[in-house]
Design goal:
The protein is of the alpha/beta class. It has 5 helices and 13 strands.
Length: about 210
């Protein structure tokens, strides 16, 4: 089975964010893009090598439209999901289902969607800085396709907190990493993730290729 290198995945996310930034020297996805969607706050890129890249929050409205909609909603599987993340994932799924991605890569809000879409499509998925998306402990049939790369000092990875009887969790494998010493910052950027993954302490603990 083909594998996605985690450093290549991080580079794609970095380039995806640069698509909406100004600057002639910025590295972008550019000619790698075959199809893309940018509608209602959802951005995703389908590349010529059949990788689906889903960046995270790009606009202030994303918080109201997706991140802060913490109530649960019942999905087609009968399971309960974070409503905002499910709404985002449904739009990504509609974009991607006919394209049949070979790999899925996401970061932050994009990682929320990546977990849901990757498990649904049963496609190898690398998710960085993932928030929690699913309510309930019962494992989904497609969870084995998803890998979450998480930093202990990244608040997003611990969100949302339990609300009443609803406690959300990540979908798929979880690879937690913590910086050495005290780090009061919130290291959420993809560059900070790439830096800590290279740490020798995680050489054998965190897969550098997925599926491992």
């Amino acid at each position: 089975m083909a594998k996605m290198n985690v450093y290549d995945a991080g580079d794609l996310i970095d380039r995806a964010y640069n698509e909406k930034k100004k600057g002639a020297r910025l590295k972008r996805l550019g000619s790698k893009i075959l199809h893309q969607v940018d509608v209602a706050g959802v951005q995703a890129y389908f590349l010529k090598d059949k990788t689906l890249v889903i960046p995270g929050t790009n606009e202030p409205s994303d918080w109201a439209d997706f991140n802060l909609r913490v109530e649960s909603v019942k999905g087609d599987s009968g399971r309960y999901w974070h409503k905002g993340f499910m709404t985002h994932a449904q739009m990504v799924f509609m974009f991607a289902k006919g394209l049949k991605p070979k790999f899925i890569v996401g970061h932050s809000l994009g990682a929320a969607s990546a977990q849901i879409v990757g498990a649904s499509m049963k496609v190898p998925t690398v998710a960085f800085a993932s928030p929690k998306v699913l309510s309930g402990k019962t494992r989904l049939s497609g969870e084995g396709w998803v890998a979450n790369y998480l930093r202990m000092d990244d608040t997003v990875c611990h969100m949302p907190p339990g609300i009443g009887n609803k406690k959300y969790r990540h979908v798929g494998s979880r690879y937690w990493m913590a910086p050495e010493g005290v780090n009061p910052g919130e290291d959420h950027s993809i560059k900070n993730y790439m830096q800590i993954i290279k740490d020798e302490r995680f050489k054998t603990m965190v897969p550098k290729d997925w599926p491992r």
